């Protein structure tokens, strides 16, 4: 088998009917390299059907087309195309004839081309994709994940047909089990030999097995092999050691087909006394929910962008991610394997009960089994994957027959892969939603809103209300069957059940599958103190497009609305913003996790001082780690300091502003009201009266501010997988970020590359991410440069009144290895 990228040579255009083309012929389309998101290029408007849920982007239908040659000698081969994801309702046509489809926008699938090909001639492929009022977040449109052309012999290993498990591991040796699924599409019975080799992390062979197999014409079979790897190096989040396996189908001393995959040797254990153990050691999950978009790139799942997200999430203290609410890309799973990030991979956001007018619930009854099969096939050899989540806030989980559907899905997963744990992100409030609505209507106008069982008073705080409902006997009863199906009970906003379930269901193991960001100090204490609670997954680890403004701070002097108005574009809820910059809550969380001992200074924007803030379920404080403001000296300012120390003292230009208690018993946060004065501000941490650490931030100089451009690396791979991310910032001569500079910046790229995206983290951003000019936000923005070939690349960054910066890059060819990663 050979697999080669099929990402180049495509064009894209809006799709119109054949009859419309008679009146207004369409052009050939715009050349693009996959992965590609067509939606991010569309103009936004406040009357878009998607509303704030979809970031005020319009929907649409697009067609991707490509012409490709098929050699004559492919006639005795099997030829197919793998799509890792097409959003949505993909329809595939080869040489004008329908060849396949996939309603789910997040499932990988393979389309056989053989019946439609013209061998020794030119062929065409067309993929139609669409999106319209079918999601609760920004989805993108198009072939947004990788594609591959797969060519194999008639006797071959099936797609995803090399599966590796490690059923028995100790310090002396590890048993590695390989399952190789073969298919004989020839007209004759064939006897072949399956030779599988295991290589260690250093590339040196550690085991090999050979098995003859006779396959009747038109049939398939399974070959099972066991290997014994001596003194195994185990995979975990600290040392993510990877082995590799390569299975070859040999006939008459020649290799007919082969497939390869990396894998990890590790042992998973689960019980309420020790929680989750990996290789015998308890691991608490410092988790982040993440959406699938890549910020300024839209949903284009370019491999380097996926890798960068995992790198930055891990640097911020996370050791686990939850895909929300759809399967992760293979590129991100590869990064999780290499970098040591645990994964909860999720199937669906809905089952049969829809959450949007035209969502996947319309296809679920017919397609869910095939989509579960695709998920498990994709994940099977990835050691980073430890959970399969069968859904997110599924309405049916509060109904007995809905629970039966959940049981079907869970058992389907287990029949395909019994080596991981099954969970479900259940929100008890959603599971009991119909009953809650009836209660609210019944209690409307209840004068005694504070009485037990009343809901009106609880509605003063939506988070408190949800917590009360989650802990109620109503939810306990309604969700018991759905929870009983699972290995681990996923609780969305269900921390009120952590101790309750410990008493009522002592064998129930829990995980905070989705939680409110501001509550991490409370949640993490529960996680640390209770072994049956495996960890916490905050909403969210990385900001995303759509669900606009759910994490913003609202103020009482402006009418409060849940959905932020146009031109808001992001949720503004992540620990890390869409450009990869850590927000202040990220450092707070790192402190709570016990991974940071230096105090961190966060300053409220002075213009908001004194404004009464409305509590938001997902909102952190509107703070920036800066002492550079367009404010007069003496302006009152609120300063927050995050620390694990007993006390924190705040100094401005060396003058003490007082001390405040901090540490675990004070939620790791101290607050000071001070007068802003240019200079520097210092936080000093004390434990038992002794200074343990200090942090200083200073005001940027008013003169001498320069435009800077810093690439994440200078040498790139000259292919469709790579990107260079360039941090563009305004800094003074001491390197201090000038957060008050919000100026337009222009980026030009010369050489074999394109500007793939340019943008800031501004959440209410009216500008486009596909233009060559963009305005900085808080003194910074981000450019993404994508190679289109090999050779030197020059990136010129300019802004009026600042010296131009030139960045030199080089794209080089890399060695291409045949064989399938999975």
From TrEMBL:
Signal peptide: none annotated. Residues 276-434 form the Glycoside hydrolase family 2 catalytic domain. The keyword Hydrolase applies. Belongs to the glycosyl hydrolase 2 family. Residues 634-693 form the DUF4982 domain. This is Glycoside hydrolase. It comes from Agreia bicolorata. Residues 707-804 form the Glycoside hydrolase family domain. The keyword Nucleus does not apply. GO terms for molecular function: hydrolase activity. Gene3D superfamilies: Galactose-binding domain-like, Glycosidases, Immunoglobulins. It comes from the Bacteria.
């Amino acid at each position: 088998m050979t697999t080669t990228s099929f990402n180049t040579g495509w064009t894209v255009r809006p799709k119109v009917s054949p009859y419309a083309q008679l009146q207004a012929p369409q052009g050939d389309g715009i050349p693009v390299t996959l992965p590609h998101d067509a939606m991010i290029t569309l103009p936004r408007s406040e009357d878009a059907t998607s509303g704030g849920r979809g970031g005020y982007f319009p929907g649409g239908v697009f067609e991707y087309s490509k012409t490709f040659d098929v050699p004559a000698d492919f006639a005795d081969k099997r030829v197919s195309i793998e799509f890792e994801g097409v959003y949505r309702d993909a329809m595939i046509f080869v040489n004008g004839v329908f060849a396949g489809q996939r309603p789910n926008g997040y499932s990988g699938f393979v389309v056989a081309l053989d019946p439609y090909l013209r061998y020794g001639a030119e062929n065409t492929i067309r993929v139609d994709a669409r999106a319209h009022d079918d999601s609760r977040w920004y989805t993108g449109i198009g072939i947004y994940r990788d594609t591959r052309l797969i060519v194999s012999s008639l006797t071959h290993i099936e797609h995803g047909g090399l599966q590796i498990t490690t059923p028995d591991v100790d310090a002396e040796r590890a048993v590695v089990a390989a399952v190789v699924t073969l298919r004989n599409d020839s007209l004759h019975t064939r006897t072949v030999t399956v030779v599988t080799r295991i290589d260690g992390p250093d590339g040196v062979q550690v085991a090999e097995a050979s098995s003859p197999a006779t396959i009747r014409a038109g049939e398939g079979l399974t070959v099972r092999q066991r290997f014994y790897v001596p003194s195994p190096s185990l995979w975990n989040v600290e040392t993510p050691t990877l082995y590799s396996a390569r299975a070859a189908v040999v006939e008459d001393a020649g290799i007919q087909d082969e497939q390869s995959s990396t894998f990890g040797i590790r042992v998973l254990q689960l019980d309420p006394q020790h929680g989750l153990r990996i290789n015998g050691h308890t691991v608490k999950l410092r988790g982040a929910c993440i959406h699938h978009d890549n910020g300024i790139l839209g949903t284009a799942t370019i491999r380097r962008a996926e890798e960068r997200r995992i790198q930055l999430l891990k640097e911020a203290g996370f050791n686990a991610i939850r895909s929300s609410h759809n399967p992760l890309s293979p590129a991100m799973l590869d990064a999780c394997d290499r970098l040591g990030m645990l994964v909860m991979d999720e199937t669906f956001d809905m089952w049969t009960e829809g959450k949007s007018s035209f969502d996947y619930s319309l296809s679920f009854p017919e397609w869910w089994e095939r989509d579960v099969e695709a998920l498990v096939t994709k994940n099977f050899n990835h050691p980073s994957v430890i959970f399969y989540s069968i859904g997110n806030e599924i309405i049916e989980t509060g109904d007995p027959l809905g629970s039966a559907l959940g049981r079907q899905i869970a058992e389907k997963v287990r029949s395909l892969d019994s080596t991981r744990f099954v969970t479900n992100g259940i929100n008890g409030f959603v599971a009991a939603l119909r009953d809650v609505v009836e209660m609210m209507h019944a209690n409307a106008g209840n004068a005694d809103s504070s009485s037990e069982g009343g809901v009106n008073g609880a509605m003063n705080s939506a988070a408190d209300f949800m917590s009360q409902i989650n802990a109620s006997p109503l939810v306990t009863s309604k969700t018991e069957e759905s929870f009983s199906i699972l290995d681990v009970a996923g609780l969305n906003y269900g921390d009120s059940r952590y101790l309750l379930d410990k008493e009522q269901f002592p064998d129930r193991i829990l995980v905070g599958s989705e939680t409110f960001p501001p509550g991490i100090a409370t949640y993490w204490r529960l996680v640390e103190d209770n072994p049956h609670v495996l960890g916490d997954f905050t909403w969210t680890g990385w900001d995303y497009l759509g669900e606009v403004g759910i994490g913003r701070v609202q103020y009482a002097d402006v009418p409060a609305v849940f959905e932020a108005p146009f031109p808001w574009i992001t949720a503004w809820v992540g620990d890390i913003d869409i450009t990869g910059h850590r927000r202040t809550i990220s450092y707070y969380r790192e402190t709570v996790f016990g991974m940071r001992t230096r105090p961190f200074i966060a300053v409220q924007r002075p213009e908001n001082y004194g404004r009464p803030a409305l509590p938001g379920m997902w909102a952190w404080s509107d703070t920036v780690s800066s002492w550079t403001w367009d404010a007069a000296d003496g302006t009152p300012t609120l300063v927050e300091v995050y620390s694990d120390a007993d006390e924190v003292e705040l100094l401005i230009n060396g003058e003490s502003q007082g001390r405040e208690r901090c540490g675990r018993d004070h939620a790791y946060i101290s607050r000071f009201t001070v007068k802003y004065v240019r200079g520097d501000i210092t936080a000093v941490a004390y434990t038992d009266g002794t200074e343990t650490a200090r942090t200083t931030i200073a005001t940027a100089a008013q003169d001498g501010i320069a435009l800077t451009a810093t690439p994440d690396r200078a040498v790139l791979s000259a292919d469709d997988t790579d990107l260079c991310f360039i941090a563009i910032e305004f800094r003074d001569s001491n390197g201090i970020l000038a957060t008050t500079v919000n100026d337009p910046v222009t980026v030009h790229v010369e050489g074999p590359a394109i500007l793939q995206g340019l943008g800031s983290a501004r959440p209410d951003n009216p500008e486009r991410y596909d233009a060559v000019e963009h305005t900085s936000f808080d003194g910074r923005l981000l450019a993404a440069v994508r190679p289109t070939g090999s050779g030197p690349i020059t990136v010129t960054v300019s802004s009026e009144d600042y010296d131009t910066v030139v960045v030199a890059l080089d794209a080089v060819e890399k060695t291409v290895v045949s064989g399938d990663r999975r």
